[in-house]
Amino acid sequence: MKVDVKREPRSxxxxxxxxxxxxxxxxxxxxxxxxxxxxxxxxxxxxKAPRTMLERFVGKETVLEEAVKELVPDAYARAVDQxxxxxxxxxxxxxxxxxxxxxxxxxxxxxxxxxVKIADYQSIRIPHVEPQVGDxxxxxxxxxxxxxxxHLVSAQADAARGxxxxxxxxxxxxxxxxxxxxKEYLIEIxxxxxxxxxxxxxxxxxxxARAEVRLxxxxxxxxxxxxxxxELPEVTDEFARTAxxxxxxxxxxxxxxxxxxxxxxxAAQGDYxxxxxDALLERATIDLPDSMIDHEVEHMVGDxxxxxxxxxxxxxxYYEATQKDEPKLREEFRPAAERRIRAQLAIEEVARxxxxxPAQEEIDREVENVARRLQxxxxxxxxxxxxxxxxxxxxxxxxxxxxxxxxxS
Length: 409
Fold this sequence. Notes:
- The chain has twelve helices and eleven strands.
- By secondary structure, the chain is of the alpha+beta class.
- The chain folds into three domains: 2-113, Trigger factor ribosome-binding domain (Alpha-Beta Plaits); 151-231, Chitinase A, domain 3 (Roll), CATH 3.10.50; 258-404, Trigger factor, C-terminal domain (Trigger factor, domain 2, Orthogonal Bundle), CATH 1.10.3120.10.
- It is elongated and about 105 Å long.
- The two termini are 49 Å apart.
């Protein structure tokens, strides 16, 4: 069998295949036997009709079509093995006119697993700075805790930034999306939850005051019912016990320091890994086929749909709220999908080059974790290979981080 392969951009390949005449004849004979078993011809038992009678009954074109169905899939599979390519999509096949006694030619166009080339990834070096958590950070965390345990009290004063103003809609000149006549609203001045014009009009107002605000084509008249200010608890040992279960303010600050240090370290590690990954991708040459990006976009849309469903929402509602449609969403997802695939392939190439793979104990432990979290057995849901691949990429990324920090791996 003769096979010529031409490489095209975006990791596509065009295979021109020629099946020799003797193989075509064998295919035609196999097609005849298959048709003879399927077709009932008057006067003959099934499978016993002569070839000439069968061809006259079903038509020679039908025989040749059946032969093509038998010959082409097998020839395509052998052609792929012969030229050593790795298809990732179903082929688009165009078959030339079939003539018995002559070669059968067809052209198969298919997307391939892209070749990954990375230039000297072992030279990646990125400075690493350990995050520091100081007393000002602890002070800010304590203030945040106080704010979350504060409560609103009547200020008996003019409203200032940071205060909450309880207003009642006294009048509307027309329909406004945010307001309904007669309803009360609690508006934080400077909070940004309401139109800036409304918050500005209420700054300096006292209980009993009225404010008329123009919003677009209509105006809303607001009556100030009360001005409220957040009263914060004092930082005492009792506050530490009530707010965080700490025995004292000193223990509370130590707990906050540990928590902030852990969070800062995790955030710094994530940022550093992204820098390493960026450096890796700058060195990587990967000609991605469109089909791989399309497939990843499909996954991203599906993930969004699952997330929305857990919140009791649908994609249709999301489109309405964001004034998008599915084609626009897919187009927005496309750059992130392409980066995600490029990163995955680049890290896989590092794992291959460094011969990195997870130990069986690591795989078993991750399988148990997933089974416990999802209440599913990954070995029964087709997740096993995916989990193994994830662990392999984690090892490769950890190896790159070690290199980038100038440490021995």
